[in-house]
Design goal:
The structure is a single chain. The chain has a single domain, classed as Vaccinia Virus protein VP39 (Rossmann fold), CATH 3.40.50. Helices cover 29% and strands 22% of the residues. The protein is built from 7 helices and 11 strands. Strands 3-2-1-4-5-11-10 form a 7-stranded mixed beta sheet, sandwiched between helices. Strands 6-9-8-7 form a 4-stranded mixed beta sheet.
């Protein structure tokens, strides 16, 4: 019932309610917050977990799995308020580069202001239509072209982005990521991977190749059938290096690395 009510609200209304709900906490936290790269809780769009702890967890895993060094060039797709970029300030030096983009202007404006003392960190807003976050936009995700140089990045990470995209949009983003990655570069991504011939409580609306959480807000959460997803990654020029099953299926946080499934891809040489 609560979920149905939540998705019936406009994105602006959901953001307003979140700001209002966390206002007492954020007002009190002003006196305790020492890291200016940590946003007020009411500003964030992320779901579960602690902003700092989750960001650090992903940072450590991304650096290890994607072999990122201080001089690496990395791209954060759907960077939001910098949950992943914040810990990267401890690694990326003058030779390396961090680039992050998001579809929401407020998030990018916040990051551009807060990271002004980190010249290696650059943030961009590219509005792309998404019925969960930005329903009124002319650019469709299936048509969006990444405005970055080909073969430029050592690694691209896409956390909780493909989980809010339709098949043709995922296919386009995979192709775009492959284009901007160097040969042998890594893509660290998260998905909901649905088991074949099995229904999942979180995704009651089942189609041949994917499942939806909500019939009207189609990008609320999207799960993909394993064979279909892996065929799509292969067709986009990637090899699957590793898969880490998430705990969304068994609802036991201690059983897995993250709530969502992690898929690590490598661009074919």
């Amino acid at each position: 019932m609560i979920r149905q009510l939540y998705y019936s609200l406009t994105p602006c209304c959901r953001r307003f309610i979140r700001r209002l709900f966390f206002l007492p906490y954020d007002c009190f936290a002003i006196f305790k917050r020492k890291d200016k790269l940590v946003p007020p809780k009411g500003k964030t769009n992320i779901g579960r977990g602690n902003f700092v702890e989750t960001g650090n967890k992903f940072f450590n895993d991304i650096v290890y799995e994607c072999k990122i060094k201080s001089e690496s060039k990395v791209l954060d797709v759907g960077c939001g308020l910098g949950r992943i970029s914040r810990p990267f300030t401890t690694l990326i030096n003058g030779l390396g580069e961090y680039h992050g983009f998001d579809i929401l202007k407020n998030e990018i404006n916040w990051c551009q202001k807060k990271y002004n003392k980190h010249p290696q960190f650059r943030f961009y807003c590219y509005p792309v239509k998404n019925d969960l976050y930005l329903p009124k936009c002319d650019t469709e995700a299936k048509d969006f072209v990444f405005p970055f140089k080909p073969n430029y990045f050592d690694a691209v990470f896409v956390i909780s982005v493909f989980t809010h995209m339709q098949p043709n949009a995922v296919e386009n983003y995979l192709n775009q990521i492959n284009k901007v990655l160097k040969p042998g570069g890594y893509c660290y991504s998260s998905f909901f991977i649905a088991d074949e011939n099995k229904n999942h409580e979180l995704f009651p609306y089942v189609f041949e190749e994917y499942c939806l959480h909500h019939p009207k807000i189609k990008n609320a959460n999207v799960a993909y059938r394993r064979d279909y997803l892996f065929e799509m990654t292969k067709n986009s020029g990637f090899d699957i290096i590793k898969e880490k099953t998430g705990w969304w299926k068994n609802q036991n946080p201690k059983s897995a690395f993250d709530f969502q499934d992690i898929v690590i891809l490598k661009k074919s040489n």
